[in-house]
Amino acid sequence: MNYFVYxxxxxxxxxxxxxxxxxxxxxxxxxDMAAIAHDGTLSFEDAxxxxxxxxxxxxxxxxxxxxxxxxxxxxxxxxGNIPAGTAVQWPDGQTDEVTDGEVxxxxxxxxxxxxxxxxxxxxxxxxxxxxxxxx
Length: 135
Hints:
Immunoglobulin-like; 2 domains; five-stranded mixed β-sheet; three-stranded antiparallel β-sheet
């Protein structure tokens, strides 16, 4: 039998296992944890739990314009269509919660930058943009 161990407050699956569910004590993994049996068709990276049911995570439908900006600290890339509550990890490692559906990124150093988006019901997604020197 397959099982997932997940956080009851968010539905995020933290691990999966194989064996009898009766032998699993979710409290061994931390507070607010539970275990749920599953049929093995989804991995823990591709699923989440809501209301005691397992669902497949869906891809984001982010809109990003433009994908290349001028590294002048003014030109910006706007990434929209972000579901509220999504965590965005900036290139410097800082993480913020998106509340208004979009983020804006500008930079004054040329280079390639990656932003990572994470939300429980969506597959994690990373976007890459390039900042080119001002001419």
